């Protein structure tokens, strides 16, 4: 060893000395440089790429096939929101008119940002924490916020799976337990339960038998033991599906992603054959054009786009990080987005076909009940028989005949009409009552199906599978970035997350738990999620650089993405999201947050505002979800937290052993690696070539130079490990 080497100096000096790369490598046995990740002979291209792929395959799991990956993304993005929330929003916001803002926002926000998340995950091959630390270290808190939002959503989302489990097991009986009101005995007299008689059998079963709900969020009422057991079953299912990472969840996706489409197809065929199905579908697609200009409709459409595609959760990034870097993620983004929208429309057809059938049944029931009232008034001479059209036959009374008779009575008895208590029994009114909850409206419709238990079992098994697919992605959004960043044991951490989430989730299986689900779903997760998606767009488009990002996509995919994405990422998407976020904040200020409470004594819903303590909890949850973003920014801005910018990780392969040399800060290290002066040293990050915008080419294209951009015989592995 030379006398002036730093290793020798350290033996004779107490001063801190940083070892050089040359000194450290001198202590090693000769290495086959042609097979190393750090290629020293200028043999770029195929050999280096093969070495990188071999390194990645050893360090990171991978999907067994492209189909498995696509099914995982579909399973995550297609969830309960597509099957029930989308039809509900369509009915609420103008029918077919709602499709216009949804499609517009899907094209200018949803697909571009979905493609962005797929691309950064595949390019950097890390979870959300590692990805956003690499893109912009000061905005590294985005990844932590994504994990927290995933936790919030997972807590209440699995409760919904627990509800589905409860209904699934209750479906194995005939007649279905929610088809009739229960009868209670008061001494020797049997009477119908008053709460059920005032509402309906399905409504009573949901609020009293399933949830046993309290009158307000302030009345805890203790744990609902039935739902507690169902929540335990739900978390057990999720835990078994994700405990091995993509090795276990990937196999589950083959069933959980495909089975719902089989059930939807069966329901569609059965629904279209039902009497009145066409009425429901026509009602659905009849646009109410005034709704298209309502800002509230656009805001709800944007929220649905975020939730439908899983933007901001980190699950999309986590799944794509297990891909090879040459995977065509542009095709994946278009395919998954199309399937997601197609599923929403298919589910809407099914829901409104079935609800059209239900509306006809309820309308006929209304006609029969009101016809009996009219007969009673005729027999007691309250009404004259002259008011009844001669062609009306009470034994075979049609809705058209009843409408004619109703209009005559209303015209003649104008002053006394309200005292008669007659209902117009309009089909439109039944259709306008809305889809409500899957656990009320659809379950009531299924009670009128032939072989109703079979359809009920299929329906709730479909909901369980849809929820499971989404929960696998949600858990990946939590576990993948934490495991990547902190190197914790995968199985132990995953099981710990499930156990922790179960105990925290007991909050949602109290008798007042449904009101907390509303708090988390409508407020605590939505606003932080919007902030996360905006900052993701800004981090890539304005800080990392859209031109640089487009150039890297070109190198990764082998073709230049459409110019459309450049303008969406750079201008249109962030502007639209800023407007929508502002509208959401204004809406919260104008309309105080609240929830629909079920009042037992009235057997009806009543809208209540959250009490002060609940408002404090809601605000705290929003702050907790977004707090990592400013905290990490401040810590790294003032250099209180290392951003990894002074760390160079040089990895090379010898057999199956990996060596890392870090914290190399001296100039002689740079000269040794690059044979250049320090000012010419490239960043430890993957080389980013200049990109002048859409349609331009890099002026520094070095495709003809085997030694790369710097003319050196050294090529650094194109991995972001040094930044992490």
TrEMBL record:
It is a multi-pass membrane protein. Residues 678-724 are annotated as: Disordered. Na(+) binds at residues 75, 78, 82, 340, 466, 470. GO terms for biological process: alanine transport; glycine transport; L-leucine transport; proline transport; sodium ion transmembrane transport. It is found in: Membrane. Residues 695-706 have a biased composition (Polar residues). It holds the Pfam family SNF. Belongs to the sodium:neurotransmitter symporter (SNF) (TC 2.A.22) family. PANTHER family: SODIUM-DEPENDENT NEUTRAL AMINO ACID TRANSPORTER SLC6A17, SODIUM/CHLORIDE DEPENDENT TRANSPORTER. This is Transporter. It comes from Chrysochloris asiatica. The lineage of its organism: Eukaryota, Metazoa, Chordata, Craniata, Vertebrata.
């Amino acid at each position: 060893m030379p006398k002036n080497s730093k290793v020798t100096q350290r033996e004779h000096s107490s001063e801190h000395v940083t070892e050089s790369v040359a000194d450290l490598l001198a202590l090693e046995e000769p290495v086959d440089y042609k097979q190393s990740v750090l290629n020293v002979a200028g043999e770029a291209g195929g050999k280096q790429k093969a070495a990188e792929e071999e390194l990645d395959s050893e360090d990171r799991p991978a999907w067994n096939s492209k189909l498995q990956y696509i099914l995982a993304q579909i399973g995550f993005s297609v969830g309960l929101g597509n099957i029930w929330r989308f039809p509900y929003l369509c009915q609420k916001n103008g029918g077919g008119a709602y499709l216009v803002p949804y499609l517009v926002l899907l094209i200018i926000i949803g697909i571009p940002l979905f493609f962005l998340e797929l691309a950064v995950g595949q390019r950097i091959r890390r979870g959300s924490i590692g990805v956003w630390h690499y893109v912009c270290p000061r905005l590294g808190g985005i990844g932590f916020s994504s994990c927290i939002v995933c936790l919030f959503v997972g807590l209440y989302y699995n409760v919904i799976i627990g509800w589905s489990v409860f209904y699934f097991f209750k479906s194995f009986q005939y007649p279905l337990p929610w088809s009739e009101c229960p009868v209670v005995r008061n001494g020797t007299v049997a009477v119908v339960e008053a709460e059920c008689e005032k509402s309906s059998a399905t409504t009573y079963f949901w609020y009293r038998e399933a949830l046993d709900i309290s009158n307000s969020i302030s009345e805890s009422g203790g744990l609902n033991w039935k739902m507690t057991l169902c929540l335990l079953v739900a978390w057990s299912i999720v835990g078994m599906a994700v405990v091995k990472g993509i090795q276990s969840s990937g196999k589950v996706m083959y069933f959980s992603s495909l089975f719902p489409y089989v059930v939807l197809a069966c329901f569609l065929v059965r629904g279209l054959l039902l009497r009145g199905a066409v009425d429901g579908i026509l009602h659905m697609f009849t646009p109410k054009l005034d709704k298209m200009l309502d800002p509230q409709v656009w805001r709800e459409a944007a929220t649905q786009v975020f939730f439908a595609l899983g933007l901001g959760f980190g699950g999309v990034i986590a799944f794509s990080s297990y891909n090879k870097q040459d995977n065509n993620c542009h095709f994946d983004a278009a395919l998954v987005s199309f399937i997601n929208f197609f599923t929403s429309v298919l589910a809407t057809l099914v829901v409104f076909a079935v609800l059209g059938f239900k509306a006809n049944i309820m309308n006929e029931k209304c006609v029969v009940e009101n016809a009996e009232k009219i007969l009673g008034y005729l027999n007691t001479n309250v009404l004259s028989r002259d008011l009844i059209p001669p062609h009306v036959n009470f034994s075979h009374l049609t809705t058209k005949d009843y409408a004619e008779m109703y209009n005559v009575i209303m015209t003649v008895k104008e002053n006394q009409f309200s005292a008669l208590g007659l209902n117009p029994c309009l089909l439109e009114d039944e259709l306008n009552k809305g889809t409500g909850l899957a656990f009320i409206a659809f379950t009531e419709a299924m009670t009128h199906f032939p072989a109703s238990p079979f359809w009920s079992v299929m329906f709730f098994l479909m909901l369980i599978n849809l929820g499971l697919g989404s929960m696998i992605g949600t858990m990946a959004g939590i576990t993948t970035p934490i495991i990547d960043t902190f190197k914790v044991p995968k199985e132990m951490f995953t099981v710990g997350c499930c156990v922790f989430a179960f105990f925290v989730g007991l909050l949602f299986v109290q008798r007042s738990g449904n009101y907390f689900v509303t708090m988390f779903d409508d407020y605590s997760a939505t606003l932080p999620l919007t902030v996360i998606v905006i900052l993701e767009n800004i981090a890539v488009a304005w800080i990392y650089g859209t031109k640089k990002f487009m150039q890297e996509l070109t190198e990764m995919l082998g073709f230049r993405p459409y110019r459309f994405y450049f303008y969406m990422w750079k201008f249109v998407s962030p502007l639209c999201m800023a407007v929508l976020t502002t509208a959401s904040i204004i809406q919260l200020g104008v309309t105080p947050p609240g929830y629909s409470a079920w009042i037992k004594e009235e057997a009806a819903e009543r809208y209540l505002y959250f009490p002060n303590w609940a408002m404090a909890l809601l605000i705290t949850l929003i702050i907790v979800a977004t707090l990592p973003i400013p905290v990490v920014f401040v810590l790294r801005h003032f250099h209180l937290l290392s951003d990894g910018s002074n760390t160079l990780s040089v990895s090379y392969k010898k057999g199956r052993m990996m060596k890392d040399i870090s914290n190399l800060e001296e100039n002689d290290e740079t000269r040794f690696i690059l044979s250049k002066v320090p000012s010419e040293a490239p960043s430890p990050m993957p080389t980013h070539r200049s990109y002048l915008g859409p349609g331009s080419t890099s002026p520094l294209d070095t495709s003809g130079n085997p030694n790369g951009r710097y003319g050196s015989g050294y090529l650094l592995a194109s991995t972001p490990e040094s930044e992490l």
